[in-house]
Amino acid sequence: MQQQIAVITLGIAELARSKRFYIDGFGWKPIFETEEIAFYQMNGMVLATWLAAALAADSGQAGKSPGAFSLAHNVTGNEAVQPLLDQLVSAGGSLLRPADAPPHGGFRGYVADPDGHAWEIAWNPSWPIDAVGHVTFGI
Fold first, then answer.
1. Contact 49, 30 (CB under 8 A)
2. What is the pLDDT of residue 66?
3. Which secondary-structure segment (H or E) carries 87?
4. How distant is the alpha carbon of residue 50 from its chain centre?
5. N or C end of the chain: which has fewer CB within 10 A?
6. How far is CA 34 from CA 4, 16, 43, 113, in A?
7. Which residues, other chains included, contact 98 with Cβ-Cβ below 8 Å and sequence gap of 6+?
8. Per-domain residue ranges for the chain?
9. Which CATH number fits domain 7-60+70-123: 3.40.109.10, 1.10.10.10, 3.10.180.10, 2.60.40.10?
């Protein structure tokens, strides 16, 4: 079977607040939106933010919450981590962990979107990013 993810959908409380974080924070643009969902075209997949109640009803997960997880956005250099964390916080995010150098190398920090979804903002010198933004796993 092909290893791929087509869409990641995050449950959100308020679309306008979520859009401010993703548009003003990351600089992303929705490719389609309604009153309850926004889609962002990524490099090879789609990220969706959907009102949590509608997502829960659609998936049959009403009353349940997901386990711990985080999403990651890699940048091309360690000097890009802190400015992006700052930009995301100013766009409505919450700083979860200040930028620092983890034991395995690189540089990273964590921010939560307005709905509490954790995003790692990271630079890893062993994970190259190509011209279209594709990250390759490296050791």
1. no
2. 66
3. helix 81-90
4. 14
5. N
6. 26, 11, 22, 20
7. 85, 109
8. 7-60+70-123
9. 3.10.180.10
State the residue for tokens 């869409």. Answer: 7
- Give the pair of three-digit tokens for residue 101: 């150098």
- Burial environment of residue 82 by CB neighbours within 10 A (0 to 12, 13 to 18, 19 or more): middle
Pair of tokens at residue 5: 């993810």
- What is residue 56's predicted lDDT score, i.e. its pLDDT? 87
Quick one: what percent of the chain has pLDDT higher than 70?
Answer: 94
- Higher-confidence position of 58 and 84: 84
Q: Is the pLDDT of residue 62 over 80?
A: no
Q: Cβ distance 71 to 117 under 8 Å?
A: yes
Per-residue model confidence as pLDDT tens digits over 72-86? 999 999 999 999 999
